[in-house]
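Before relying on records like the one below, remember that each one covers exactly one chain. Contacts with other chains, cofactors or solvent are not represented anywhere in the record.
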Amino acid sequence: MEPTELLRYRRALKRKNYSGHTVKNYINILDHFMRQLTVPLPEVTRKQIEAYVDHLLRKRRTPKTITCHLQTIRLFFDYLMNEEGISMVNPVTRISLRLPKPLPRHLQDEQVRRFFDGITDLRDRAMFMLMLRCGLRVQEVAELSVDAVEYARRQIFVFHGKGAKDRVVYMSEDARSALLAYLEKRSSKARALFLVQKGPMRGKPLSVRGIQKRIEYYARKSELTISCHRLRHTMATQLLNADADLATIQDLLGPSQRNGDVVD
């Protein structure tokens, strides 16, 4: 038998023209919640809400499902306070859990060829080749300097990367060739490696947003869903497929914010 509060809440939802499906879902969630309570509704605090979230996590409910439960419970307590006249503070102060970010899908070899076939600008080709072959982040590419590259050893020194950590990455032959072709054309003596080529900012270091705009342009041109991060993820996937060990890949890609992640 439904508790009295739920019976009245059901009627209130129907008066507000909520669909039968929505009313049923709300009442089911609230019934489940109230069965877990060990105190009366007016005495529920954040402590009971946190215990309920823990209960849902033990049941292996997804963050999306738990967020739905919290939103429903918050609305119920709003109703109790505003329409039932219960004097209390709504115990649901946070209504969302951090959702895991899905990793971007890596590019297939044919997609990589299609993407680079559309790039005729030597600077852009070099930038994106470094992301694909060296696993550089867009911020790291934007901050590269001319003297950070050792062509004879095919090395690039990444200074103060993510987590303020330096590292060395290695260039493939096609990345090295693309970079040399760009530098042969470039006449500036600026310290920054990649520069704005047109407009009032010509000769200034290319910004992160400037690089992102270029990849967005080529994504439209090639009709591919692609980003700087996706190039980096493709590099990691290619190394995994070539049986490289995870520790080596992590060293090449640099530190991650999330323990155990290969790419961020």
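Residues 4-82 form a domain with the DNA polymerase; domain 1 fold (CATH 1.10.150.130).
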